[in-house]
């Protein structure tokens, strides 16, 4: 993190996004002092460092930690509840934009971390899911589920205490440790939940779960091509047509860094490392492309693309923008604050 992303003396008290990301990272790594350094998968107790060691438990270790790194900032008052739920909305938006979540479970993502998650290419967004990202959402859902099914007698914190009490001696957790502890120690059956969202590829049912803590979810079309989620669309103009590619501005045009399957960009035939230099004959940048995708139009857009030294003419179909941008809103402040432990 660059030095000047940190706050300076005399600056406004509101923390910048960059600084919040930094202290969230610090929170994440500190949590690993217990959860990974001491509590760890059974295969990591005495690993063979001469070869890769595989485990399907990384969703527990990185996913749970990804939940606690942000929620801890809200619990101790570093960020207000509204900002915390905006961060969660951004995490959900990242997940909803990831088509790979329907092809790979987070248990599989954990197991294949060596040769897939840590060897990603520009097409990975269509084929894999992050056990950090979805694992954190699964942990959030599990916390609410435990509270709801136990009539608020237990939660994820209680599960973490059990993990510490039984496995903090570095004896190593078995693959079914979360299901087993919830069933045998907390008297809550979560097998169906884990089968669906951990070992299967279903989304966590955030609408119904968040309702229990006084928060509502809405999913809208992105406000811009760079929309990360979290901001309401009320009164704002957003692109009406889909693009479906990750781009980077260059001196002239846009570099295509990833293409989402079934998107308008995919149907147009855009490929990774293409350079999109013009739309309808006009030299393009990200701002102009967004404007062209926002105004009403009755015909496809003509794309001028450079690929491997050749100039290609492609056609971008006008497909409706997809609702992928998540917004979370506190509907019952007392419930939300109580859930955060800030009564």
Order of SSEs: HHHHHHHHHEEEHEEHEEEH
CATH topology of the largest domain: Neutral Protease, domain 2
What value does the average pLDDT take?
A: 93
Form type: globular
Could you say how many structural domains there are in total? Answer: 2
Strand residue percentage = 5-15%
What is the topology?
Blueprint lengths: L16 H15 L26 H18 L5 H16 L9 H6 L21 H17 L6 H12 L9 H8 L6 H7 L8 H6 L3 E6 L24 E5 L4 E6 L4 H5 L6 E5 L2 E2 L2 H7 L8 E7 L2 E7 L8 E6 L2 H7 L4
Antiparallel strand pairs: 1-8, 2-3, 3-4, 4-5, 4-6, 6-7
Helix pairs in contact: 1-2, 2-3, 2-5
Describe this structure in words.
With 343 residues, this protein is an alpha+beta fold. The protein has 2 domains: 3-221 and 326-339, Neutral Protease, domain 2; 245-316, Roll (Pdz3 Domain). It is built from 12 helices and 8 strands. The chain has helices at 17-31, 58-75, 81-96, 106-111, 133-149, 156-167, 177-184, 191-197, 206-211, 264-268, 286-292, 333-339; strands at 215-220, 245-249, 254-259, 275-279, 282-283, 301-307, 310-316, 325-330. Strands 2, 3, 4, 5, 6 and 7 form a 6-stranded antiparallel sheet that branches. Strands 1-8 form a two-stranded antiparallel sheet. A hairpin with a 4-residue loop joins strand 2 and strand 3. The longest helix is centred in the first third of the chain and has 18 residues, at 58-75.
